[in-house]
């Protein structure tokens, strides 16, 4: 069972990463490491992994 704050972290991380990708802060082809992003957000790798999956399902059309 997932805690409510993890869902919030997942949504927050996915939103911030999407904004960084769209704005060009994150360059195309840049290898993103879950452990580095988790450290930046002060969370475990689980919400980061879920955020990556969320962004993959959104695709480029859901900007």
UniProtKB/TrEMBL annotation:
UniProt-listed SUPFAM superfamilies: Winged helix' DNA-binding domain
Keywords: DNA-binding, Transcription, Transcription regulation
Pfam families: GntR
Residue ranges annotated for the HTH gntR-type domain, each copy included: 11-59
Superkingdom of origin organism: Bacteria
Keyword Transmembrane recorded: no
Identification of the protein by name: GntR family transcriptional regulator
Organism, as annotated: Paracoccus alkanivorans
